[in-house]
Design a protein that fits this description.
6-stranded antiparallel sheet; binds methionine sulfoxide; alpha+beta; about 25% strand
């Protein structure tokens, strides 16, 4: 079933592309609850639909963020709470929208090509279980529209994989 979904967007505007994406995503993950499997397909779908430079997940394990499924070049394995954009999203339980990574004091550069970034926490029962990290090789790539829809996407993913079935 999942392999039959084409994530190439038909819509023109960013908002319409996200709306289209979320409908397809719901179909993609509706019958799969394994955390790694769902994150792997969500990363692939986001890459296919939006062409992000780097997109993937870090998962909270033993009080550290540990590299999960992703699409893009190799990345650092572990991030401490409060460190980098990812560790800050975890500590603050809030999305971090970073127009210029060089201006984010503790930014961790996995690639020198990364210029802007957005990190969205996946929450379950008010705890951060993981974060979705997206990097761009251009400055100012993400805005409030991305924040809004990526938060919707993370809510959908978190409720699918972390709710007891
Ligand atoms: N830039 C992130 C580290 C992860 S990579 O971007 C894949 C950070 O500052 O947390």
């Amino acid at each position: 079933m999942a392999t039959e979904i084409d994530f190439n967007p038909a819509a023109d505007s960013k908002q319409a592309r996200y709306e289209e994406f979320i409908k397809k995503l719901a179909a993609l993950i509706c019958q799969e609850y394994d955390e790694i499997s769902v994150m792997a397909n969500v990363s692939a779908a986001l890459k296919e639909a939006f062409g992000f430079f780097w997109v993937g997940f870090y998962i909270v394990k033993d009080d550290i963020l540990s590299l999960g499924p992703f699409q893009g070049s190799v990345a650092c394995y572990r991030i401490k709470k409060g460190r980098g954009v990812c560790g800050t999203a975890w500590e603050q339980k809030q999305t971090q929208l970073v127009p210029d990574v060089e201006k984010f004091p503790s930014h961790i550069a996995c690639s020198q090509l990364s210029k802007s970034e957005i990190v969205v926490p996946l929450l379950y029962q008010n705890s951060v279980m993981a974060v979705l990290d997206i990097d761009s090789d251009r400055l100012n790539s993400f805005d409030e529209t991305d924040k809004h829809y990526l938060e919707e996407i993370c809510k959908l993913v978190a409720s699918t994989i972390y709710t007891e079935h």
